[in-house]
Design goal:
Elements (H helix, E strand, L loop, with lengths): L6 H30 L4 H20 L2 H15 L3 H24 L1 H12 L3 H14 L3 H16 L4 H24 L4 H29 L7 H4 L5 H30 L2 H37 L3 H37 L3 H33 L3 H23 L4 H30 L2
Helix pairs in contact: 1-8, 1-12, 2-6, 3-4, 3-7, 3-11, 3-12, 4-7, 5-6, 6-9, 7-9, 8-9, 11-12, 11-15, 11-16, 12-13, 12-14, 13-14, 14-16, 15-16
Length: 437
């Protein structure tokens, strides 16, 4: 349990998680392709708006996945199998509680979100229909977050991959059956998502029972029925929620400022952000490996294992980030042409493409250290560094650089990513590594 990890341990976790991550945009492409071939663009617009709303809602509660990983990994490293059951049970109970609140509040949530997005009457009507169906996936979606985090904590990345693949393949198949085969429209796409999430949940729960048999322990009822027993869980996840909201604010701010700079800038920035998200899908796989391996090392109080886990995952992350920079430098214009065939958007995107060549080697540090901090359950530090990077670096940089237009916006974003990485590296060296001694 206290052995020092090697490259095979990193990729045993990272490879399945990378595959899981890149399956997400594939599903989005199928959704778009299926609904985009209907006889009216209003359906595509409605699904896009509905997906945006749920993307915001579910990203905001992704702390269920991250927090559970760190807690479970430390219990696993300490051979605390009762604690593993507490981590799983508390995460599922909180997930179902949040899902219940979303279901109860679905009407005002839909009204507020649709009002903010401000689409036309017909698009809004179809988007509301989509929302009213897909919201019923909340119990399964949030529980799946908890299950994926728990399995990662046990160094098992195969089950999260199985869950993700079950969800995405079921969703794709039902899109084709319900929309193409049976003639449903936005209601078919929404229903496919609901059924797919519950399919993934069934797969995850099936593996839970087997995992628990391999790690025998007791279910301590009082740890689930007394509110004060959730103090540690809420402390970690509350910090992660604030951290996530700050990150979401930054991306929303970039989008909003791009819109103010004009439609072409907005479209070009959207293309560039897609390339940045592609980077994150890959590097997050290694961050997940860091979460699991660092959590295990911290739980077993093994400083050498901690240092080795960080060194290995960082090394591989750097290799991949340099590869992305080279790929964007050599083939970036080709990728842009794949993403858009509009000449003006292409030309505008080409002007700002050098920022995407630079960003992989700048942002890799923050991606990797996010995983380290999750594994070490240093959520408060994650929160504080994110807040400082957002409000003391990103926003002041933008207001100082806005005379440079979109170049100023991308420089501010690059400084934001750099400050996160620098801050997290310094804290890791001074606090996390020392505490593990």
């Amino acid at each position: 349990m206290s052995s020092v990890p090697g490259n095979q341990d990193v990729w045993r976790i990272a490879a399945p998680m990378i595959l899981s991550n890149i399956s997400v945009p594939l599903l989005g492409m199928v959704d778009t392709g299926v609904i985009g071939h209907l006889d009216d663009a209003v359906y595509l617009a409605a699904v896009a708006i509905g997906a945006t709303i749920f993307g915001f809602l579910y990203t905001g509660v992704n702390f269920l996945r991250m927090g559970t990983t760190g807690i479970a990994a430390q219990c696993y490293g300490a051979n605390d199998y009762d604690g593993l059951r507490v981590a799983l049970g508390q995460a599922i109970i909180v997930a179902l509680g949040i899902a219940s609140a979303l279901l109860v509040l679905q009407a005002p949530l839909a009204a507020m979100a649709l009002d903010v997005l401000g689409a036309g009457d017909q698009v809004t009507a179809y988007a509301r229909e989509y929302f009213s169906i897909r919201i019923w996936s909340a119990p399964a979606t949030l529980t799946n977050y908890a299950l994926m985090g728990w399995f990662l904590g046990l160094q098992n990345a195969r089950v999260p991959l199985y869950i993700a693949m079950a969800i995405n393949l079921t969703n794709i198949a039902l899109d084709l059956v319900l929309v193409v085969g049976l003639g449903y429209k936005v209601d078919g796409v929404a229903a496919a998502s609901v059924i797919a999430e519950f399919t993934g949940l069934a797969v995850g729960l099936a593996f839970v029972f087997g995992e628990l048999k391999r790690h025998p322990g007791q279910w301590l009822r009082y740890r689930f029925t007394r509110f004060r027993e959730y103090a540690g869980f809420f402390a970690i996840n509350g910090h992660l929620l604030i951290r996530t909201l700050s990150l979401m604010f930054t991306f929303a701010f970039v989008t909003a400022q791009g819109a103010r700079l004009g439609g072409l800038i907005l479209a070009a920035n959207a293309v560039l952000m897609n390339l940045q998200h592609l980077l994150s899908f890959v590097l997050d796989g290694l961050a997940h490996a860091a979460e699991a391996l660092v959590g295990k090392a911290v739980g077993s109080k093994n400083r050498d294992a901690l240092h080795r886990a960080v060194a290995l995952t960082l090394r591989w992350s750097l290799y991949l980030s340099v590869g992305f920079s080279l790929a964007y430098a050599i083939g970036g214009q080709y990728l842009v042409r794949v993403l858009t065939d509009l000449p003006d958007v292409r030309a505008t995107t080409f002007e700002y493409l050098p920022w995407l060549v630079l960003l992989p080697v700048v942002s890799v540090w923050s991606f990797l250290y996010d995983g380290v901090y999750v594994g070490a359950t240093r959520a408060r530090a994650m929160r504080d560094i994110m807040i400082m990077s957002t409000f003391l670096v990103f926003l002041p940089s933008w207001f100082a650089l806005r005379s440079f237009g979109n170049h100023g916006l991308w420089l501010a974003f690059t400084l934001f990513m750099a400050s996160r990485g620098i801050g997290m590296h310094v804290y890791y060296r001074r606090k996390i590594l020392v505490a593990a001694s």
